[in-house]
């Protein structure tokens, strides 16, 4: 396998990253799936990530432990902050400080070791417009930094941060995934899922997902509590 | 305490980061010291980091666990790669892939939660010229990315990556630290220190440190094995 054909793909267990993995594989990449146990409420995501990585043919799936809960500052990792049913204005309380920066940095480290020149992340600037680290200008700045940070960059090998979903609607994402054979019944998107991965049906992530299936005219396989 | 007077300071337990902490404090910052248990050979560093943070008046000291050893690729975290006695040409085998990027990203997350607008890191482009992530152009790109990554950046608060040592010689660093009351006997620089923090005296880090004390005409307090 040529190193130009390897990709590290961030896989959370949710709908977006599953679709991203399917798209990376369709482009011919050997995919190295990477997940994080970071103190999130919804650990059912990690079981989902494992199922998704296997079902979509990842070469390897690695889960890294990192204690973002010790840093605090988000409803997703600080269990004293309630996950709201509806998004307010501005940046949501479910925003985890610098999360994508931390995740991309660990992906960059693994990519360097594996000599992978592509990192896929399923960020989306449409549904998650309130998250600063889902914007195209952020991704572009990250890629520039990454190419100064590493041995690969110094040696002239460009690392690409690939964000195939960034401008897609949720319906487009779901339609793309269906075409590529993604089984969305394996995925968990809910911010407050129970241990079996059943969704609350009320949080922002559930609402966006449900509306996506409706808009895409695809049966919603989500199991709700 | 005004948020403009808070700083997150990366403290490894080594000589450079101890000096950086002393310099940040001299500038009037309330210092939040941050260390990482990342699979390094030299865990004696972490005991040193705790002593250094306390002795130099850090407001808080946090150690985050992160399994860079699982990613591999460096003599510092992969115990099957020997730490060399002398540096070769190019990027050393002690380079940990994307280490400063990972560390700065966690510092950025904590800074955002603490509303600290300054992050201090003791990188040095003189002694560590072989490390891509110790170069000024890397730090500048990181700062640009960081200000697009966070809620603070979106809200117009600039986060500064402060690298006071970046152009200093080891002798200058030691002389500065002595003036600021750093007890270098508390620090551990060796890549292969034993459990008591005693230095091997042979690795690259030991060599640079010893030559630094000689050039600075300061008694070397290091205890060698």
Plain-language structure description:
The structure is a homodimer of 225-residue chains. Chain A is of the alpha/beta class and 225 residues long. The first copy, chain A, has a single domain (3-216), classed as HUPs (Rossmann fold). Chain A is 36% helix and 11% strand. Chain A has seven helices and five strands. Chain A has helices at residues 15-26, 44-55, 99-114, 136-149, 151-154, 170-179, 204-216, and strands at residues 6-10, 30-37, 60-65, 118-120, 160-162. Chain A has a five-stranded parallel sheet with strand order 3-2-1-4-5, with helices on both faces. In chain A, helix 1 (15-26) crosses helix 6 (170-179) and helix 6 crosses helix 7. The longest helix of chain A has 16 residues, at 99-114. Chain A is globular and about 50 Å long. The termini of chain A are far apart. The mean pLDDT of chain A is 89. Chain A binds chain B through residues 62, 64-68, 70-73, 91, 95-102, 104-106, 108-110, 112-113, 132-133, 135, 137-138, 141-142, 144-146, 148-151, 153-154, and chain B through 62, 64-68, 70-73, 91, 95-102, 104-106, 108-110, 112-113, 132-133, 135, 137-138, 141-142, 144-146, 148-151, 153-154.
């Amino acid at each position: 396998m040529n190193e130009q054909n390897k990709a590290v793909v961030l896989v959370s267990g949710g709908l977006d990253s599953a679709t991203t993995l399917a798209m990376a594989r369709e482009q011919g990449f050997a995919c190295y799936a990477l997940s994080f146990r970071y103190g999130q409420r919804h650990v059912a995501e990690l079981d989902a990530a494992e199922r998704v990585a296997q079902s979509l043919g990842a070469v390897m799936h690695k889960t890294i432990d990192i204690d973002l809960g010790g840093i605090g500052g988000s409803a997703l990792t600080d269990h004293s902050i309630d996950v709201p049913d509806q998004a307010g204005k501005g940046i949501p309380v479910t925003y985890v400080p610098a999360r994508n920066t931390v995740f991309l940095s660990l992906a960059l480290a693994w990519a360097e070791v594996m000599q992978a020149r592509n990192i896929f992340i399923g960020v989306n600037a449409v549904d998650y417009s309130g998250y600063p680290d889902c914007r195209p200008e952020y991704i572009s700045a990250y890629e520039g930094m990454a190419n100064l940070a590493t041995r690969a960059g110094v040696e002239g090998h460009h690392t690409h941060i690939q964000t195939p979903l960034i401008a897609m609607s949720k319906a487009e994402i779901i339609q793309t995934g269906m075409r590529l054979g993604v089984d969305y019944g394996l995925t968990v998107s809910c911010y407050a899922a129970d241990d079996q991965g059943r969704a609350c049906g009320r949080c922002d992530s559930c609402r966006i997902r449900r509306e996506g299936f409706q808009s895409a005219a695809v049966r919603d396989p989500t199991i709700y509590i």
